[in-house]
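re: the backbone from monday

yeah here it is again, tokenized this time
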């Protein structure tokens, strides 16, 4: 064998060795192929628990308008201070509210139907919006809070939603119920199909958000006053959901 042939043989041999998987990799690949060929049963368990809402998110705001921005702002500040004082007197605590939105926006003249070629909109006034966001567990105060805010000068009220103060507390219950449902279904299917459940290969938890009660209330001050105060509001229940997927290895039952 000449030198050139020898070098070529060595290079080819080294290349083949480099391309060949390591023993551990070969073992993992074999296990993967074996698992892929393993008969499986996949079941999906769901659970939806209804739990009463124990927390409220409420937005209360004051909107003022004037030709001068300073005047509108001064009026807004005075009314908002009155609103906050009224809410605190009803029973709201200082750690249950925070500033929500504050905005000063100019108001422009409307475009005429037949404007002059050089027509430009002009500022005719200013609008100031200031709101606070309330998060409280004092659900028995809902009507009183809305009524007190209305009487103090608030003219926008919106219930952002009822919710659970500790959703993780009930999330675990939903997961346990969903898992139980999945396992029960797997046993039922296996029995009906004359199969043995050998072992669990995988368990997956799907992310399902809680569904709050679909409840929104928004009203201006005057309509609320005409109704004699705040309308009665019931919190309702929050739906806590969970979905669990279980994959079993299965095998035919041995006939006696």
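seq for it, each position gets an aa:
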């Amino acid at each position: 064998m000449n030198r050139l042939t020898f070098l070529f043989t060595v290079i080819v041999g080294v290349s083949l060795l480099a391309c060949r998987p390591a023993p551990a990799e070969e073992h993992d690949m074999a296990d993967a192929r074996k698992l892929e060929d393993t008969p499986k049963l996949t079941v999906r368990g769901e659970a939806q628990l209804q739990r009463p809402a124990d927390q409220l998110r409420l937005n209360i705001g004051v909107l003022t308008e004037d030709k001068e921005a300073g005047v509108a702002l001064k009026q807004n500040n005075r009314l908002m201070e009155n609103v906050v004082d009224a809410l605190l007197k009803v029973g709201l605590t200082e750690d249950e509210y925070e500033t929500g939105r504050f905005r000063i926006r100019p108001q422009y003249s409307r475009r005429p139907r037949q404007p002059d070629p050089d027509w430009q909109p002009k500022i005719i006034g200013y609008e100031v919006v200031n709101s606070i966001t309330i998060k409280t567990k004092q659900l028995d105060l809902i009507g009183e809070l809305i009524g007190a805010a209305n009487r103090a000068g608030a003219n926008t009220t919106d219930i952002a939603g009822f919710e659970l103060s500790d959703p993780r507390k009930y999330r675990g219950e939903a997961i346990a119920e969903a898992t139980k449902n999945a396992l029960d279904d797997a046993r039922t299917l296996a029995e009906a199909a004359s199969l043995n459940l050998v072992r669990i290969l995988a368990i997956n938890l799907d992310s399902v958000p809680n569904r709050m009660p679909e409840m929104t209330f928004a009203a201006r001050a005057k309509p609320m006053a005409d109704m004699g105060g705040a309308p009665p509001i019931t919190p309702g229940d929050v739906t806590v959901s969970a979905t669990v997927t279980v994959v079993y290895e299965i095998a035919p039952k041995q006939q006696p």
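The CA atoms of residues 155 and 221 lie 5 Å apart. Residues 6-14, 214-227 have pLDDT under 50 and may be disordered.
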